[in-house]
Design goal:
This protein has no helices and 9 strands. It is mostly beta strands and about 110 residues long. The chain has a 5-stranded antiparallel β-sheet with strand order 7-2-1-8-9, with no helix packed on it. It has a two-stranded antiparallel sheet with strand order 3-6.
Length: about 110
């Protein structure tokens, strides 16, 4: 089964929440290793420097010298799901993807 037809997958919390810094919203940054296996598994960013004449495709020139790439995706918890406010980095979540687009999925705490 390829990623374009997968509607459920295992994802991991990209950061830990402590008693000094608990989770305050229903949005959690997660890493999706099946989708991006080579990206560092954290909630940080990488900056990619590009030459001035770089084109993403023939109709889309890049006007900035650097692009900010995120290592994680911020996704909401599914309504009615009980999730603690304190948990470690790498905590497992189940990602539900009803329309086959990861960025519009919902998380369920395991």
């Amino acid at each position: 089964m390829d990623l374009q037809t997968k509607q459920v997958m295992q994802v991991y919390s990209a950061r830990g929440y402590t008693s000094k810094d608990p989770r305050k919203s229903n949005i959690i940054p997660v890493n999706v290793p099946e989708y991006l296996p080579t990206v560092p598994q954290d909630n940080k960013y990488t900056y990619l420097n590009l030459p001035g004449n770089y084109f993403a495709n023939k109709n889309f020139p890049i006007s900035r010298g650097s692009i900010k790439l995120s290592h994680s995706v911020n996704l909401p918890l599914m309504s009615g799901n009980n999730c603690p406010t304190i948990f470690d980095k790498g905590t497992k979540f189940t990602l539900l993807i009803p329309n086959y687009k990861i960025e519009t999925g919902y998380l369920i705490y395991n």
